[in-house]
Amino acid sequence: MKKIAVAKKSSKEVQVSYWVCSSPVGRLLLVGNAKGLQGLQFQDGAHPLTIQPAWKKSREPFLAVLEQLQEYFDGSRTRFQIPLNLQGTPFQRQVWQALQRIPYGRTVSYGDIAKKVGSPLASRAVGAANGQNPVSILVPCHRVIGANGKLVGYGGGLPIKQALLELEQSNY
Q: Which of 137, 141, 144, 165 is catalytic?
């Protein structure tokens, strides 16, 4: 009798966990795995993220994130120290790294970020990458404004962007 090979599940598959918490700007969905935080989404906005059936609901993997978010909203934290596991194109990851260098309480334009990533004519591409940021607040895409100084575009909605900027400016 011939043996049939049965494919085994890879032991390298990483369990994705999630937790939903409340915050001053609404409910936040945290998503991550052993490699780091890969999502922080506004669940009360226009585009809530759907929780996947394979994800495990667990608060424990996010204890440091929850603590640092609380400190941020209390005004006592200006930088996050959370391992991130961001998935995106090389250009997106370059933009997200540039966003993390925007000082707390400050704003820059899309054009400023385009120059920082070495593509001074790519303001629209920066805007698109900014809009795909999977980890809002920690990767501070809310600190990017239009060249005219006005608030433009934000996945969580402009009222949340305004609230985050006001929070930072009042503690700056």
A: 141
